[in-house]
Amino acid sequence: MPVPEDHGDTGGEKAANGPCPPGATGETEDLRAKIAFLEKKLNLVGSVTRHDVLNQLTAIAGYNELLGMMIEDEKMRSFLSKETQAVEKIRRQFQFAKDYQNLAAESPRWQNLDNILRRVRELVDLKAVRILSETGNTDVYADPLFEKVFIHLFENTLRHGTTATEIRISLHPEGESLQLIVEDNGTGIPPEDKEKVFERGYGKGTGWGLFLVREILAVTGATIIENGESGKGARFLIRFPRGTFRTSGE
Fold it and tell me: Is-above-0.85 flag for pTM?
């Protein structure tokens, strides 16, 4: 299957709007320069802010750990535990903000599913949950952040699956598209929450995980839904459109 074409700047804007009036080229260049400058400022502010805040959070976490060894009063320890959870939640929110800022910052590329799953197994503490994958030798054309799709889906199972002991990953051709199914044998998702779980801010955690998953997939036209049976496990169906999947080596 051919690699999706990168047409670059095809002059579509000029074609859509007709001939450029005198001086328009200079104005366009000025606008591009201003946008590039603003992007640079935003990236710098975001990077510096995250770095400094995360350093302070690390210090707070360290002092909390020391206090935990000194305090014996159970009520005080419960307060300290809640503070530690809040610090961890803030840390995760900064990580998600960084990921979202980096989304689509680089061009999509071909990525091998087996290699991605191998890396994710090393990054996520799966505890007693087994991963059963049947992805063959398949590549997908996706944003460089694509491996975070599996990271967040796996963490969703660990955090909400409760009784889950395994996660199954399989591929199913469907016409000109390809379905990738990630399902577990946990408690599942109630019918009224199947669409809400992808909304930003929804849920007991940071509310960014599955929202980011959908955004990463959308970069190359892939979609995701949850269609599992409540009480029998979560089932996420990812659909890759034609031209965004292939057998390795093609």
Answer: no
